[in-house]
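Handout, page 2. Input:
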Amino acid sequence: MDISEVARRAGVPASTLRYYEQRGLIASLGPQGARRRFADSVLDQLALIALGQAAGLSLDEVRSMLSPQGAPNIDRQLLAAKADEIDATVRQLRAMSRGLRHAAACRAPSHAQCPTFRKLLKAAASGALDRQRRDRGLRPAGKGVASAP
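Output:
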């Protein structure tokens, strides 16, 4: 299958296929004339890449789960850890949704006077600070002594 056919069938631009090939996620069979050619199995590889990205895996993590021949070599521990991360995110989003719904319906004269809204603000500020610290390689507040890695 030539690159344009793969791009059409997979629903991705040819530039994405070239990028994936450069990153070692897929391999072409070599050019036939001026066009790259791919085995039919590349469509399954592209589906696995799309699934991994939808689940929040990096391209490096996806690549680690593809054998050199392109067959899946699934890291079950990585998938379980990613599922745990997704579950934690869902819990956080549900809590945020409940807080926002409360704030929208709150009868307090001012949101600043609503204890539930104040808790929501505190949690948001704490989460933002923890993310900033984590992005800088430091431990989140309350998780031990802050130190560089």
